């Protein structure tokens, strides 16, 4: 999925460069259940495999990431959790940690709402986000048929990324673990 995720993010980058109308539609899609806003279909459905049904986790993940990218079109090399930890370290705000804990406890039905709030926070800090990694993680998180332990692996990695970034000395970025 890595090349696929990178291709999708590259597609979003092109949309951002050439179509403010597309970005507006993708932002609006965040107000609906993932994949339930027809004006966003032209920008996302080309990446959905024909055999995928409407509630398929990979399809839902594409719509969530597309909307979040439109909200904060600043791709970069850090995970969502690491960016959030860095933002908290910069602002010294306990509210950020509370939002992160709520995000970790989110279920598939309300995950997009929590992510929209967190990405809005990252936008205020102008922190770049690794959307390809987010897409891969959401594919697992949103899959109702996946072993819950695999979903917990994503949550645990996010927690490690967040607290490592939070603990990094000022002016430094947290090291990226090799085996995570």
UniProtKB/TrEMBL annotation:
Name listed for the protein in its UniProt record: Type I-E CRISPR-associated protein Cse2/CasB
Organism: Azotobacter chroococcum
One matching Pfam family: CRISPR_Cse2
UniProt-listed CDD domains: Cse2_I-E
């Amino acid at each position: 999925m890595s090349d696929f995720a990178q291709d999708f993010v590259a597609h979003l980058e092109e949309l951002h460069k050439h179509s403010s109308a597309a970005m507006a539609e993708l932002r609006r899609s965040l107000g609906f259940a993932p994949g339930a806003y027809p004006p966003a279909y032209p920008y996302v459905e080309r990446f959905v495999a024909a055999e995928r049904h409407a509630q398929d986790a990979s399809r839902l993940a594409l719509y969530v990431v597309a909307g979040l990218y439109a909200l904060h079109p600043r791709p970069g090399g850090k995970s969502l959790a690491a960016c959030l930890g860095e933002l908290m370290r910069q602002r010294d705000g306990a509210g950020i940690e509370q939002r992160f804990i709520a995000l970790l406890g989110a279920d598939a039905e309300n995950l997009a709402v929590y992510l929209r709030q967190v990405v809005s926070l990252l936008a205020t800090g102008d922190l770049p986000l690794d959307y390809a990694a987010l897409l891969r993680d959401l594919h697992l998180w949103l899959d109702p048929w996946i072993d819950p332990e695999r979903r917990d692996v994503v949550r645990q990695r996010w927690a490690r990324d967040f607290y490592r970034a939070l603990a990094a000395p000022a002016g430094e970025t947290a090291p990226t673990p090799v085996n995570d």
